[in-house]
Every structure is written in C-alpha cells, then in structure tokens.
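Quarterly update from the structural biology core.
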Amino acid sequence: MADDARWLVIGLGNPGLEYAATRHNSGYMVVDELALRVGGKFSSHKSRADVLEGRVGVGHDAPAVILAKSRTYMNESGGPASALVSFFKISLDHLIVIHDELDLPFETLRIKDGGGDNGHNGLKSLTKSLGSANYLRVRIGIGRPLGSQDPADFVLKPFSSVERKILPLTIDRAADAVEALLRLGLDETQQRFN
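Predicted structure, tokenized:
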C-alpha cells in the first residue's frame, strides 16, 4: 500500500565531480538546494541512490519528502528510481522528477504531469523501469546548442560563464516549484511557474 503522505523527489544527473557542473546535472542541483532547505545530509541507500528524508517547510502540515539522487549514470536512472518507489511505497502521483530540458530556453521552467521522454535518456530509463510515464516533472530549460554541436556533448558541458551568473536563481526557482507542487498541487504550481 502506498504512503499517500510522503513524496519522492528525484533529481536526475550523473555522479562524479567531472559532471557536477554540467547542464545534464540540473536535477541534482535542485535536489541539493532542497536538501539545504530541509536540513540534513544524504546517505547511501541500497537502491543505488543517495537519499535524505525530511520535511519541506515548517509546521505540522509540512510535507514529508524523500530527496534522491541516483548513483548510476543518467541512462540507468530507472533502476534506482523504481527501487525507491517500491521500498518507500510511493504512488506515482507522489513522484516528482527534476531534469534538464533541451527544448526549453535557458532559465525557463515547465511543470507537467506525464508525457514523453523527448529523447532524454534519464526519462526513458525511468519510464521503462516504472512501467509508466505518469509522474510529475519539473523541467529546467538549458536551451539547444548553437551551430553544429551535438546535443549529447552539449548537455555534458558546464554552463557558460554568463549562464553561471543566472543559474543560482533558476535552481532556486525550480526548488520553489517543487515546494509549490508539494503544498499547492499541479494546477496552481503551473500557473505560478510555467
């Protein structure tokens, strides 16, 4: 039986210092920001993910969350996600996945429920492992590369110096969007952030 009170928030990315500042790790960055707000440290979980359990916000009605970052590479994110959903008994309507999105301009956020993977290997892996695409997504726009640069290379490159100046605000807004989803639901969060 699913625990309707708890939420699972997964940030997509690649483990390791060489990927830490890359566009593809936007999801990790947002989960790290949420972890600062929740307080506490991530611990290793048998699902091949690092997790942090806590509450977002203050008060007795503050939503209980499990924040998670897979220790696998992006294209294998589904295994740990599926294991976490099973272990913590989370229903898919209480799963939020945060990821980078090539088809949105840099700085843009879009919150949605379900949909396709749009070529995103992390989402492909999640949808396959979960057996469903019906989970909430916080999509962080990273824009498309200029010229002939391969998108697969582009997502694994660090943000530009100009982007890095704006990035903390975008990460902060994405974390705010997750908090809004937890407290206010999809419709109101879309009105505020889309």
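DSSP finds six helices and seven strands in the chain.
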